[in-house]
Each structure stands twice: as structure tokens, then as C-alpha cells.
Amino acid sequence: MNFNKAEFFTSYGITSRIPESDRIEIAFAGRSNVGKSSLINKLLNRKALARVSAVPGKTVTINFYSLENIFIVDLPGYGYAKVGKSEKARWGELVGGYLNDGDRDLALVCSLVDMRHPPSPDDIQMINFLIDHEIPFIVVLTKADKLNKTERARRLEALKTELPCAEEIKTVVFSAQTGEGVEELRSIIEEISQPEQEADN
Questions:
Q1: What share of the chain is helix, strand, coil (3-state, %, to 5)?
Q2: What is the 8-class DSSP label of residue 141?
């Protein structure tokens, strides 16, 4: 899979306008400013394909990026306190509507958590939602470069009790700065995106 050939496809601000899936979708979810846009840019080897902002809560649409036979889907960030209730409600409808759409070919959700801190209540709510709805997912621990070796070991140990069903969850340690975790994520995406007949061979 050539990750260099990804292109912005379209974006939607209202769930009802999103057309039916015509290919596999891999979605990225996480709180505002967790580093989703930076991750997507690093993953797709582009500097500004996904818009990076220093202002949390900037992404207010579901953005689709075309990558060969799949869509990379960037979901709006959640949990930003300074956003008004009406905007939070709209985001909740948008993300919830997307994830609850049983007709979508949603192959995987990458749930991003800032590795420097315990998962927020919103992070836990998202993970429990994915578990309850039996949506395949992994947890991507972002901003790993901000921790030294001792801090990293401490956080990885703590996550064993902080994450629900931690022993059953696949985690990927990631840094958009150093590139750690990029190849592992790419391998996961490539494996998922293989046509069924190829996967069976």
C-alpha cells in the first residue's frame, strides 16, 4: 500500500449527509488536541494533509481521506471544555451517528489517548462505547516522545488498570515527532485492507 498517495476526499458536518460506505473505513477518534491530525499526516507522509491547529476543538467535521481501496476517517475531537453545549451536542450527534451506523464498513477505530496522562473520562467513555458496540478498535498512545524511559514505563504499567479490559486491548505507542509507531500502524492498516480473497490465500 502506497501511503504517499493518500488524498483528501471530502468532509461532512451532518451525519445524514454521509453516503453509504463503498469501501473499508478506518477511523481515528480522540479528545481535542490529542494529536489526531499530526498522526494522520505522519501516517500518510504528508505535512499538511490533515489540518493541524494549536486551538483544541478546531476539527468540527468528519473528514475522509482516500487511500487506495480504503478511507481514513478523522472524527472530530471530543472533551474540549470551552466549546458551548450546543456545539458539544452537535459533535456528539455527528460522531455518535457515524459510529452507530451499522451499515458502514467500519473495519477499525484507532482510539487516541495522550500517553502522558491517565485516560480522561471521555476517553474511557469512548473505549467503553466501542467495547459495548463490538466495534473493532485499538488504542494509540500519542505524544510518547514527551516522556523519558522511566515515565514511559510508569505510564504503561498504570494503563493496565486505567483502561477497561486493558489485557485484551491492542495498544500502539506513537510519536508524530520521532515516527515511533508509524510502521506498526501502517502494517495494521495494510492487513485490514487486504481483499478477503488475498487474506485467505
A1: 40, 20, 40
A2: E
Evaluate whether 139 touches 170 at the Cβ level (below 8 Å): yes
pLDDT, one tens digit for every residue, the chain (201 residues): 999 899 999 888 888 888 888 999 999 999 988 999 899 999 998 876 765 444 444 457 899 999 999 999 999 888 654 555 665 566 667 888 899 887 899 999 999 999 999 999 999 999 999 999 999 999 999 999 999 999 999 999 999 999 999 999 999 999 999 999 999 999 999 999 986 544 444
Closest CA to 27 of 120, 125, 121, 97: 97
Query: Architecture of domain 3-200 in CATH?
Result: 3-Layer(aba) Sandwich (3.40)
pTM flag (> 0.70): yes
What are the Cα distances from residue 123, in Å, to 113, 153, 156?
7, 21, 16
> Do 43 and 186 form a contact (C-beta atoms < 8 A)?
yes
Backbone angles phi, psi at 140, to 5 degrees: -105, 120
Largest CA distance in the chain: 51
Question: How far is C-alpha 150 from the geometric centre of its chain's CA atoms?
Answer: 26
Q: How far apart are CA 180 and CA 119, in angstroms?
A: 20
